[in-house]
Amino acid sequence: MIYFDQAAAVRPSPELLDFYRETAARTFFNQEAAHAFAYRLRQELQEAGNELSLALTGKAMHVFWGTSGTDVLLAAAHLFRHRKGGIRLSPIVHPAVEAAFADCGNGGDLMLTVFPHVESETGLLSSLPEVPEGSLTLCDAIQSAGKIFPLPEADFMVISGNKLGGMGGGALLFRDETFTRDLAQLRTTHRVSRPEPAQCLALARAAKLAADKQQENREKIQAIFSFLRRELNGLPLPGGGKIYPTVSAGNASFHILHLLLPGIQTGVLVRMLGERGVACSAGSACAAETTEPSRILRAMGHAKDAYSGLRLSFGTDNSMDEAREFIKILHHVIKEY
Description:
The chain is α/β, with parallel strands linked by helices. Helix content is 39%, strand content 14%. It folds into two domains: 2-6 and 214-336, Aspartate Aminotransferase, domain 1, CATH 3.90.1150; 14-212, Type I PLP-dependent aspartate aminotransferase-like (Major domain) (Aspartate Aminotransferase, domain 2, 3-Layer(aba) Sandwich). It has helices at 14-26, 36-57, 69-80, 95-100, 179-188, 197-212, 214-232, 266-275, 295-299, 320-336; strands spanning 2-3, 62-66, 86-89, 110-116, 136-140, 156-160, 170-174, 244-245, 256-260, 278-279, 309-313. A six-stranded mixed β-sheet has the order 2-7-6-5-4-3, with helices on both faces. It has a three-stranded antiparallel β-sheet with strand order 8-9-11. The protein has a two-stranded parallel sheet with strand order 1-10.
């Protein structure tokens, strides 16, 4: 299998799988229990949170653990659900972000600005938006954590274990300690679920491993990205169109290559590629079965080709040989389309 869908989920490394098995075997109990074993586990999770924030941001931040990126995103939204002030969402936020903050904000001054560091469908890089003094920022770092170092400055950051090669888990990083009590109450009132310790510890380990090898990993993935971008740009298509990149190289994350194939229904193309052993995507995994044209492509001014996006996303276990083989397979599939 050629796995070019690592923006949807990163394949866990053997090292991380071994770590998870060992950790799960010794942390099976409830970390909220009163006995000494649970107390030590809570301390271990605290230390893992410190390791996670330092690895990804270079700074110490508070960490609220969750079962997934979506889980901690909902926890963040709960913090602002009944506060006075408005919520501003970037027009290219993930649908999960829109859903989480749908009931937040009740007018007044701007309270929170939410933006993605890397847009999940196209790989578009975003910078920290300008915000009024006193307004907070939340960065959706799910696609950039473990790839881009350090993460941008923000008051809150959302991280997903699946996107780091972990076995689930999520983390909400935050600067202001005063939010700790409110987040803890979400757990005690059962508004968010209790995460599995092994998942959280594996997430922290994955972040540390990625930070330790960040330069090596970036060079390897960047080479695949650049090669495919160069070789596929301008490739002729049935009907006279040509493949072209959606985002300029300077504005794209190096691990997501998004292409537009005018005249091609890429939802069909992805299935044809899958039959030949290639895993890739026509957009975000959560929207894989939708019949609607891409909301993100329409927002970026590509309404005409909103059904024609192809996302290739890469990880450290991909190779240049896979990239060369993919080009051959894509040529054959386009001829059969």
